[in-house]
Amino acid sequence: MIRLAKDWKDFAVLATGDGYKLERWGETVLLRPDPQVIWRAQCDLRARKDLAAVYHRSEKGGGSWEYLRPIPESWNISYRDLTFKIKPMGFKHTGLFPEQAVNWDRMCGLVKAAGRPVKVLNLFAYTGGATVALAKAGAEVVHVDAAKGMVERAGENARLSGITGGIRYIVDDCKKFVMRELRRGNRYDGIVMDPPSYGRGPGGEMWKIETELYPFAELCAGLLSDDPLFFLINSYTTGLQPAVLANILALVLKGRKGTIDAYEVGLPTEEGIALPCGAGGIFTND
Question: Given 92, 119, 152, which residue is the final one in a domain?
């Protein structure tokens, strides 16, 4: 099953093919690589007249942007009552993963229906898409990421969305933070985990999802409250199936009453196909 983020108005995937995706971010059109796009393009993606920039991968790793016309250094787009800053960055990123709106909507629905204060931990939280959505829904959120610049962007996104409180920002290695929280006895009603395939913490700590994800999820399970709302794991790693996430949740939450759902996440395209963007697994106490 693939769940599509269909409700964007300020973002769209226009066309795909030959390892690239053509996207509209507000009024700005970008062409970025995507390893999932192994099919042939149905049109010349670079021929679009309003194409503003193309990201080219380097054989040595990383890559760079080629600007075809002047564009702002950054600009804002909205999703419902949320506003996010978009900025072309290294490694083809723009500062937002639009497909995650599927998960924002689901978690926010659980928060709003809870009828009680809800405390959420967002790990590997990047620029705060989930943080902003959950805080706007009324949750108290602890936002943790090892990159100071990304945490600062999360604060900016919160302010753009009219959020002035309810978020605690932490620049730290996620594993170290979780271990401290366990020692302190702190507990959370929801956990969001959005780990990279590979990463390095501020102290040089190494992360490799295939070896680190299960033991880390096991640690995080100890932070759940007695009556949690959800535990969500996202994965962008190519080849890591939704069933893997379902199995991890089933094992680390063994004995807890609830439902586990695992699925692909993706985006609709104007070609009429679905662009796969990773996998999600969620435990809900319903």
Answer: 92
Domain range for 46: 2-92
3-class secondary structure per residue, 40-61: CCCCCHHHCCCEEEEEEECCCC
Contact present, 56 and 46 (Cβ < 8 Å): no
Residues 109 and 88 in one domain: no
Strands (E), 7-118: 11-17, 20-25, 28-33, 51-57, 63-67, 75-79, 82-86
- DSSP strands (E only) in the chain: 2-4, 11-17, 20-25, 28-33, 51-57, 63-67, 75-79, 82-86, 119-123, 140-145, 167-171, 190-193, 198-200, 206-208, 230-235, 259-268, 274-284
Interaxial angle between packed helices 129-136 and 101-114, expressed in degrees from 0 to 180 and rounded to the nearest 10: 30
Does residue 110 sit in the same domain as residue 214? yes
Tally of structural domains, the chain = 2
Question: Would the pLDDT of 107 be above 70?
Answer: yes
Q: Tell me the sheet residues that pair with 79.
A: 82
Rg for the chain, CA atoms, rounded: 19
Please tell me whether residues 40 and 124 are part of one structural domain: no
**Amino acid at position 40, single letter:** R
Whether residue 225 sits in one domain with residue 105: yes
Q: Give 207's pLDDT tier (boundaries 50, 70, 90).
A: low
pLDDT at position 197, please? 79
**Last residue of some domain: 92, 122, 155?**
92
Cβ(264)–Cβ(2) under 8 Å? yes
The chain-wide mean pLDDT, for the chain, equals 94
* Two structure tokens written together for 229: 């709302």
pLDDT at 26 over 80: yes
Over residues 111-163, the pLDDT tens digits come to 999 999 999 999 999 999 999 999 999 999 999 999 999 999 999 999 999 99
Q: Is the pTM of this model over 0.90?
A: yes
Whether 78 and 133 map to the same domain: the answer is no
